[in-house]
Design goal:
The protein is an all-alpha fold. The protein is built from 9 helices and no strands. Helix content is 64%, strand content 0%. The two termini are 36 Å apart.
Length: 219
């Protein structure tokens, strides 16, 4: 593991098939801040304490910004595409997508820890603590990307939705249908709705099991 700005740029650009390119990233210092966790900063002995604190605050600031931006984009995406599901359902889905567990999964999908600077103690931490760190790194990365895109929420929206959010929402919805066998009426409504949207991962040829009306497992 180590800081690798070039690898980070390539991983970010690779996730989106639209017009984004590595050339967008003209401020490597933002990525450096985002990809350097405060634990690593405080492990260092080559800078004085006030400078360590300042650098840690810069990272935390990017993470806070990134979380706000990410939540805003998730909310917009759900309201734009799934408002007919109702406010309560949207709130549940949103809470899953913006959870620490999901953000850590996004960080893993990007292979974030392979080109980031983490603290020396990272590998000895409990999995829950590791996920907390990875989630924060992802938040900071989103903050850096938002600033790289000159605070263009639309472009940041496109990158996040294409790269992570759309697929994650689809997984949450399909899992909900798969697990909820008790309410047949709800199952029917969700099946019809998922078919209409042509969401991925459903087995279109086996919506019913023999002798009962239950959703089949994924292919």
């Amino acid at each position: 593991m180590g800081l690798n700005i070039k690898a980070a740029k390539e991983a970010i650009a690779k996730r989106y098939v639209g017009s984004i390119s590595v050339s967008y990233f003209q401020h490597p210092e933002l990525l450096e801040i985002a990809l350097t966790h405060p634990n690593h900063i405080y492990d260092g002995t080559n800078i004085i304490r006030p400078q360590q604190k300042q650098r840690a605050l810069e990272h935390q600031g990017l993470a806070n910004l990134g979380y706000v931006v990410f939540c805003r984009i998730v909310s917009n995406y759900l309201l734009d595409n799934f408002s007919h599901l109702g406010e309560a359902t949207i709130t549940i889905i949103e809470s899953d997508i913006v959870s620490r567990k999901m953000l850590a999964e996004f960080a893993k999908e990007l292979n974030l820890k392979q080109f980031s600077l983490l603290g020396k103690s990272y590998k000895w931490k409990h999995k829950s603590e590791q996920n907390k760190i990875l989630a924060q790194m992802f938040e900071a990365l989103v903050g850096a990307i938002f600033l790289e895109f000159d605070r263009d929420l639309g472009l940041t929206y496109d990158w996040l939705v294409e790269s992570f959010i759309a697929e994650a929402v689809a997984r949450v919805l399909i899992t909900a249908v798969k697990d909820d066998d008790s309410d047949l009426e709800t199952d029917f409504q969700l099946i019809d709705w998922i078919e209409a949207l042509k969401l991925p991962l459903l087995n279109q040829n086996s919506l019913y099991r023999e002798n009962n009306y239950l959703l089949e497992c994924f292919e």
